[in-house]
Amino acid sequence: MVRELPIGLAPPDWLVRNLRPRPAPVNWAAVARASLAMASPLAAGFAAGQPALGALASMGALNGVIGDTADAYRMRVITIAVPQLTGAVGVILGQLVFGQGWSAVVVVTLVALVSGMISTIGTVASVSGLLLLLNCVVGAGLPLPHPWWLAPLLMTGGGLLVLALALLAWPLRAGVPERAAVAKAYRRVADLLDDTGDDDRYIGTRFDVTRALDQAFDLILGHRARHHGRSEELTRLLAQLNAITPVVEAAPAVHLTGRPLPPEVPRAVRELADAVETGDTTRLRLPKLPLALTETERAVDHALKHTAAVVTSPSADPRGIDEHTVALHVRAAQATRNAVLSAGSWRYGLRLAVCIGIAQALVSLVPVPRSYWVALTVTFVLKPDFGSVFSRALLRALGTVVGLAIAAAILAEVPIGWWDVPVMMLLAPLVPALTPRGYGFQTAAITPVILLLSDILNHEGTGLLLPRLLDSLMGCGIALVAGYLLWPESWHTRVGDRLADAVEDTAVYVETAFGTETDPVRRTRMRRRLYRDLSTIRTEFQRALTEPPPTGRRAAAWWPLVVAVERIVDATTAARVRVHHGAPPPSSAEVHQVVRQLGELAEGVREAEILTGFPTHLTGPAGSVLEPVRQEVAAARAIATPH
């Protein structure tokens, strides 16, 4: 019998959330690549009598392992190669100011500003900014071998070795990751159809659908944007991904009925997913669907037939494909522009620059051996797009302690030499295996790897351990004080304003769905963007829940409003589907009333610091398709108002 801890001894929820490992499958191919890519440069270095040069190449391979996260082979070229190039620039800049005192402080601080700003552009830019700053700190803090181009060449070569290993299977598995991503989106939609009758599971599954669709679109559109000419395979996959949209839009209408779908419906979607993944539609056998009688049943029936027709079609309709690619380019251009002009980008960049500047200035004034580790810790903890600063500082400290314990045993028992190669073959795979589990696990895996390579470069043995612990704690302290506690950026400005923007966009969506707008592609694109934004907001809330009071408590209080806004979007989509399949459309006055109430809700969210409830009643004709929307808006307004 398990006995519960007394209330006073139970750990707080935010701490439990931080320490709980995230469930994630092990990517065995990435594990094998990490082992081979990081151990082989060491072996080559020992064979050539230059172990320090092999250690530098292994450091570059570690950077490549960190960036080895993409599924599609063409995307791996970008996600691994581009960061290696920016990392090489960082090493060169760092070497130029090595031992230059305050000149090094200024240069590294400016690099930190640029790193923080470009990190907001996207995933590739984020890793590129990280390696730019990390390698600049290493170059400014470590005496690297001459000539000046040797260190960046070795480190870049180590990263490109990871890329070369990642591309070995490309000729045999070309297109497999893209098909798997589309099939995964189909299966998440099938899960959503399974959960339409369960209110508790539906919202969470809806979030999984949004994430799977976003990943599939980003993968295929990103691939196609770099593909010269029209690829028939990519066009077909994008058409199949678009074809599931009517099913996704019909799901909220089914959910509002409160009745589960017949099991044949989600089973049919899973059969289509299998056909998409294998590329073979000759064996597709869809189950017989029950007769559709209501508006909602007709919507599901028509949506499934449309999806099946697209999946089984021998050729894809190219209409609308280029519009998606243009939208991708527009989104990328907008993200780049925001990185230069937006206040949030400057705020993140300045916060990172201030903390790096403090770290560099501190180690310039106080004699700290191998002081670059302080700035490295600040860089990892304070990366603005990696999550809660408080949580990362906590997990960094805990992970470092665990990693140092592992490193202590290795450095004490394994002398520098050939034995380091098999040890690295065992340590390196832990990085890709544990990184998806959480930041603390990643830190625990990376720390002994870096200390082993540092020992080959510096020959300090266990003398590295205590200084590394002190440096890590100093870096965590700087990040917590100068990057977290002293900044006026509150939880509300980080998340509340985004939620208010989403409410305003929802008002526009309601107006578009039932106004004079007749372009279904625009409506679909607007709905998809709304769900993407709400997915980002949900992620921000989950990060905020890992912070201690008052931030975590405030996020928990606002959480029902996030769910309420998602339900408003769902109800609007459901109403639009019902109108499309025969229900009477709402009057313009009824639509205007809902839009006005949503506008007032958005204004209240921007001004509110504390959530209090107040009664709201939206009038309208009984039985109107907008009645569920009015109910959800009233529920949301009862959650949030300025106090």
TrEMBL record:
Keyword Transmembrane helix: yes
First-listed, main subcellular location of the protein, grouped into a coarse class: membrane
Domain Integral membrane bound transporter residues, every copy: 360-481
Subcellular location: Cell membrane
Protein's UniProt keywords contain Transmembrane: yes
One Gene Ontology CC term in the entry: plasma membrane
Transmembrane spans: 148-170, 397-419
Record key words, sorted: Cell membrane, Membrane, Transmembrane, Transmembrane helix
Membrane topology: Multi-pass membrane protein
Pfam family, any one: FUSC_2
Domain of life where this protein originates: Bacteria
Protein family membership: Belongs to the YccS/YhfK family.
Name of this chain's protein: FUSC family protein
